[in-house]
Amino acid sequence: MTVSAMPGAQNRQKAGRPGIVHIGIGAFHRAHQAVYTDAAMKAQGGDWQIIGVSLRSTDIVDALNAQNGEFTVVERHSDGPKAYRIASMSEALAAARDIQPVLDALADPAIRIITITVTEKAYGIDRVSGRVVPEHPSIKHDLASPRQPAGLLGLLVEGLRLRKQADLPPFTVVSCDNLPSNGVLLRTGVIDFAKRIDSELAEWIAQTVSFPSTMVDRITPASTAATYADAKLLLGFEDPAAVETEPFSQWVIEDDFPNGRPAWEAGGAVMVDDVEPYERMKLRMLNGSHSLIAYMGQLGGYRYVRDVMADAGLSRLIARHMENAAATMQPLAGIDFTQYAEDLLARFRNPEIAHETRQIAMDGTEKLPQRIFAPACDLPRGSVELGTFALCFAAWMAVARQHLNEVEPSTAAEILNDPRADEIIHALGNNQDTASIYDRLAMLPDWMPKQLLSDPLWRDGVIARLSVLLSDGVAEAIGHELKP
Ligand code: CS2
Question: What is the pTM of this model?
């Protein structure tokens, strides 16, 4: 195959003008919202090109701009990979390099929607109170210099302030991160942030800005050499911005866009009045199981999700956890939880997808509350279904303990890859006693819900599982869990 020059490098004219700013242009955005927006513009036109903003990294910005914002998506099907180009991004901006162009874009009347994928830890919003966490590094920075923000909330609030000042309508703000009621949470956080600098602005935001919640789903492993090699093989040119993903994709969106929106239905998006039950199902059944796979997989020495799923015992454990997670759900019209679980298991087994357990294991303190603690609170105290939730929490602790037993604290913190890694390592110290490991980790401030903290049955259940994991290993722990 001849390797041709990258199409797009010559700055071809794109269909449509920008209408969206997307914050967080990691692989997931490129494999998900950008694909839906591309489909929407192909089907119905419209000025919905995306201006992509990266808050921290600059490499992806340079790579995308060198390609006129276009990139390759490699879809991993069972009969081999398929690749296609996505042309819905007009340009990319590096906020860390220069914030002004980002603020200009946010204040541009042509921009009507801001979409967001920055991962859980970038919000800096307390999940219980909905208020900002003043010690969060970006919140702290942005409250101190609100006109020169660097973080998500600061940017949104400054963008809205500029629009209010210019007498422009606000944009619609759409969180696409795996957080429960992500729209409601972001709205409360943005209003609280604004209140701290300008109460009138906060009032205007409360009255005029719409924050629809969304549920997003597409398994997107981090790009590797194999992604770039396949992109080149299939389309004939190098693409350092290529992403790879599974064939499945889902986007459920609350249809509350006062300033219009792309025809995302053209890409298969589903518009609903209330996203919360879908989000809850996905967080509990998919993401919760993913976390269980990640921690048990790490303990068992499995690199990829598909390897975990190829282990008969672990695979049965994951299926059991999905049943237990489904038991926390209210019925949802049109959804059969058993079928949903079967489809998830098939997706996790996909041998074409090399999804590292390490990637999912990161940021555990940000993920476990909605994936494990919240559903555990919805089950009756001491119920058998709680077992796999307690096991996931125990496995998270065991992974941290194992890292710290094997390497220096600073390396352990790096491997843990969690915003609270230092606190975790400090809490663990040299402690090998399972009860005190539990007590110290469960009591990290503002983390585990009071209901679980004050439940001795939960505590005993987690400690018992942690003991088995640490002294007898993964197979033994699964055996206990699946005992009839
Ligand atoms: C995963 C998610 O890394 C993780 O924590 O559970 O990124 C998961 O792959 C996506 O939510 C799937 O839609």
Answer: 0.96
